[in-house]
Amino acid sequence: MAYIHLDGVSRQYGSVWAVDRVNMAIEKHEFVSLLGPSGSGKTTLLRIIAGLERPTQGRVLIDGEDVTELPPHKRGVAMVFQEFLLFPHRTVYENLAFPLRMLKLPKGEIEARVEWVVGILALRGLETRYPNQLSGGQQQRVALGRGLVGRPKVLLLDEPLANLDRELRQEMEVEIRKHQTGLGIPFVYVTHNQEEALSMSDRIAVVRGGRIEDFASRADIYDRPKTAFIAQFVGRSSRFEAIVAGGDRRLALRGDGILIEAESQPGLALGERVAAYVKNEKVRLKPAEPGGADAPNALPATVRHVILRGAYAEYVLGWSGGELIASRPRSEAEFAEGAAVTAFWNAADVDLFPVSEPGR
Ligand SMILES: Nc1ncnc2c1ncn2[C@@H]1O[C@H](COP(=O)(O)OP(=O)(O)O)[C@@H](O)[C@H]1O
Ligand SMILES: [Mg+2]
Known about the structure:
A hairpin with a 2-residue loop joins β12 (250-255) and β13 (258-263). The chain contains eight helices and 20 strands. The protein has helices at residues 42-50, 92-102, 107-120, 136-148, 166-183, 194-200, 218-223, 228-233, and strands spanning 4-13, 16-26, 31-35, 57-62, 65-66, 77-81, 154-158, 187-191, 203-208, 211-217, 237-246, 250-255, 258-263, 273-279, 284-287, 298-309, 312-319, 322-329, 340-344, 350-354. It binds adenosine-5'-diphosphate and magnesium ion. Adenosine-5'-diphosphate binds next to β2 and α1. Belongs to the ABC transporter superfamily. Residues 4-234 form the ABC transporter domain. Keywords: ATP-binding, Nucleotide-binding, Transport. This is ABC transporter ATP-binding protein.
């Protein structure tokens, strides 16, 4: 039996189902992210696990116990928020000790536990400071410490890094993951930021419209998107519309000025409309060949802009049907703006989804 079980959990607000029939099983050693756009129901789902929100339907089980009717402080869970929510007129020490004072632990135990989180979160020397005397990263560490100090069975985190700049966020990602591994308790991490989810998680649940679109390993979510929504939301890719034109071992797809070859896929009929996604880093470039052949997965294009992103360069390419993007390591040969190129990719790198009729 998994450590956390969500069994048919739904939450209705007026006419809106913020969470809609969610089933999830999370293991004790796991770092799980709930990844989805704003308004998809991530916070509501997390608050239901925490006991801050009652599900309209369904049950929540933690460590074998049905906690659906239990208040937050009896569930052994802790939650860390984006806004840190530190007490401004209390020192770091008092902020960390606060949850333990609420639990009425003996003084010696409180000192030992605060000492423990001060140690693991590198807060030593800051105990007597007030929150406004701390950097953003230090404040977030204190917020994390306040979550961990009660030795929860589960730590729930709601966009805890959203207020930090990119560099600090990336440092904290490594740190948070390290603590989860060290503590051996599940972390359930809410974010709309795919980079955060991909950097830390064992598994990612993609949330859309209150439902779990897929719950799988981060590699599967990224490399084998199960739906068009996931292909669009995770990673960066170009999209082509086409019609299934034939093929047996490989599928041939014909679009407006483009011929695509993809691995064959069950359930697609001849003449069906499909959307094909190719991730930016899968699009390769070579100089245009004179009289360029009409080969599949090869597009004559022109370099419109080159965007430098540290170790990578992003090539925004114009082709007869619109734009596509190729992202390449800077260590590879560069193409100048205005250069004529051929953009090409492998059939295995095409993610294919039927295009549903409008209004369906
Ligand atoms: N207390 C509430 N009252 C009414 N509607 C709410 C309430 N909380 C959330 N919602 C609605 O539920 C949906 C999901 O919200 P939320 O869980 O906050 O999404 P997310 O965290 O993914 O941005 C949204 O449509 C939101 O407006
Ligand atoms: Mg939210």
